[in-house]
């Protein structure tokens, strides 16, 4: 039902509009989006005819500051946190400001690097929006999607957006599959914000190398490389043993380990994280060549420390680890491994022997361009505190833990 992100980027670069839909658990709406610098009266008129007519223009925060566009209100009470600014019209070259021709000029001016705060009158008929610096990787909204698409198309980071109204229900907004029919009728690409976020994780940097140091440990000596997240600022670390660039960086023994404060530091018996960490470091040291990528910010399969502890209470009252997450309105597993893939590429690793029981980790690494030559199990004896947890990971999350006895029929 959705088109490739590359098609949408090509259309944006050519000045064509596209339609971008967000998640079902968000607004579940589709916006017509096009690049502000390519705005024409015809494109604006088309957008007004098929939308709410409330045309917005998303620009980065720093550009809004440069143009003197402060937030519309001191306290933003919008349910999605949409960052509206004061409305504007072009100060010159327009009449009333409301026509498609006038709004197209204002939109182009918002994308013009030579424009200044004096280039606009306030209030006006175009609504600028402040986009988060990290784009859809920081906030999964149409505001950020429009800027990301313009930037990906090699244009100024300024995008125009407006919600598509429903022809089936004149009082409502268009949803899938009506958006698909609309795009087919008008020859437009249809993508999702989730698709765009995944495209960005593969094609744009998400981490940068920060510092290197020698790290002697009880497991052995490692060369440690720290990385900083470009979107969230989270710091990750890679422990490198031996020459991982040898043999063209192929078939390197690798463990991708998600931060677990309770297991890694306090030795919690409720999980097997700390034991897996130690066993993986032992194996890498024994192999003489390998990498452990320690991903911070992934506590509790990405839900965070406090929700994880709340999940423990729910488990003590009879829930399993899956239901304890969903009971809090949280995902079962929100982790993704684009940072790990980029760290491995930076280290010169081209394919990995993956220390993991989680097939999803393998799939995600390969989706981000790191081939997995083989899976190396990390199975450890269960204890009375974590046996039910491990069974749930096997039976409900697909983890490959063969050492556990089969579930009772």
Automatic annotation (TrEMBL):
UniProt site (Essential for DHBP synthase activity): 125, 163
Manner of cofactor binding, per the entry note: Binds 1 zinc ion per subunit. Binds 2 divalent metal cations per subunit. Magnesium or manganese.
The keyword GTP-binding appears for this protein: yes
Gene3D superfamilies listed in its UniProt record: DHBP synthase, GTP cyclohydrolase II
Domain GTP cyclohydrolase II per the UniProt entry, residue ranges: 209-377
Residues engaged in binding Mg(2+) 2: 27, 142
Pathway: Cofactor biosynthesis; riboflavin biosynthesis; 5-amino-6-(D-ribitylamino)uracil from GTP: step 1/4; Cofactor biosynthesis; riboflavin biosynthesis; 2-hydroxy-3-oxobutyl phosphate from D-ribulose 5-phosphate: step 1/1
Residues that, per the record, bind D-ribulose 5-phosphate: 26-27, 31, 139-143, 163
Reaction(s) catalysed by this chain's protein: GTP + 4 H2O = 2,5-diamino-6-hydroxy-4-(5-phosphoribosylamino)-pyrimidine + formate + 2 phosphate + 3 H(+); D-ribulose 5-phosphate = (2S)-2-hydroxy-3-oxobutyl phosphate + formate + H(+)
Binding site for Zn(2+): 260, 271, 273
Region of interest (GTP cyclohydrolase II), residue spans: 203-409
InterPro entries: DHBP_synth_RibB-like_a/b_dom, DHBP_synthase_RibB, GTP_cyclohydro_II, RibA, RibA-like_sf, Riboflavin_synth_RibBA
Top-level taxon in the UniProt lineage: Bacteria
Keyword list, A-Z: GTP-binding, Hydrolase, Lyase, Magnesium, Manganese, Metal-binding, Multifunctional enzyme, Nucleotide-binding, Riboflavin biosynthesis, Zinc
GO biological process per UniProt: riboflavin biosynthetic process
Residues the record lists as binding GTP: 255-259, 276, 299-301, 321, 356, 361
Active-site annotation: 333 (proton acceptor), 335 (nucleophile)
Quaternary structure and interacting proteins, as annotated: Homodimer.
Descriptive protein name: Riboflavin biosynthesis protein RibBA
């Amino acid at each position: 039902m959705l088109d490739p992100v590359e098609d949408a980027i090509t259309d944006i670069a050519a000045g064509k509009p596209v339609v971008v839909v967000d998640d079902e658990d968000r607004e579940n709406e589709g916006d017509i989006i096009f690049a502000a610098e390519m705005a024409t009266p015809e494109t604006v008129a088309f957008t007004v005819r098929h939308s709410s007519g409330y045309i917005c223009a998303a620009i980065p925060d720093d550009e809004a500051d440069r143009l003197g566009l402060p937030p519309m209100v001191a306290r933003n009470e919008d349910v999605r946190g949409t960052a509206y600014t004061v409305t504007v019209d072009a100060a010159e070259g327009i009449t009333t400001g409301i026509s498609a021709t006038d709004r197209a000029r204002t939109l182009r001016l918002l994308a013009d690097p030579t424009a200044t705060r004096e280039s606009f009158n306030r209030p006006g008929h175009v609504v600028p929006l402040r986009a988060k610096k990290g784009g859809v990787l920081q906030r999964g909204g149409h505001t950020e999607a429009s800027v990301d698409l313009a930037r990906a198309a090699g244009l100024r980071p300024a995008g125009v957006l407006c919600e598509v109204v429903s022809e089936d229900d004149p009082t409502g907004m268009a949803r899938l599959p009506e958006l698909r029919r609309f795009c087919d009728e008008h020859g437009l690409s249809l993508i999702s914000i989730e698709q765009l976020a995944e495209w960005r994780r593969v094609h744009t940097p998400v981490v940068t190398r920060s510092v290197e140091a020698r790290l002697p440990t009880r497991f052995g000596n490692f060369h440690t490389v720290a990385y900083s997240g470009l979107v969230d600022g989270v710091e990750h670390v890679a422990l490198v043993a031996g020459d991982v660039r040898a043999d063209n960086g192929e078939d390197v023994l690798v463990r991708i380990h998600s931060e677990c404060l309770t297991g890694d530091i306090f030795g919690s018996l409720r999980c097997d994280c700390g034991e897996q960490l130690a066993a993986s470091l032992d194996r890498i040291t024994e192999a003489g060549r390998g990498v452990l990528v320690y991903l911070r910010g992934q506590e509790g399969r990405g839900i965070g420390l406090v929700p994880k502890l709340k999940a423990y209470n729910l488990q003590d009252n009879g829930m399993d680890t899956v239901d304890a997450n969903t009971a809090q309105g949280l995902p079962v597993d929100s982790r993704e491994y684009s940072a790990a893939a980029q760290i491995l590429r930076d280290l010169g690793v081209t394919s990995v022997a993956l220390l993991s029981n989680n097939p999803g980790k393998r799939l995600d690494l390969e989706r981000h361009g790191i081939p997995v030559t083989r899976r190396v199990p990390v199975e450890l004896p269960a204890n009375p505190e974590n046996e039910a947890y491990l069974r749930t990971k096997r039976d409900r999350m697909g983890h490959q833990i063969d050492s556990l006895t089969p579930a009772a029929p």
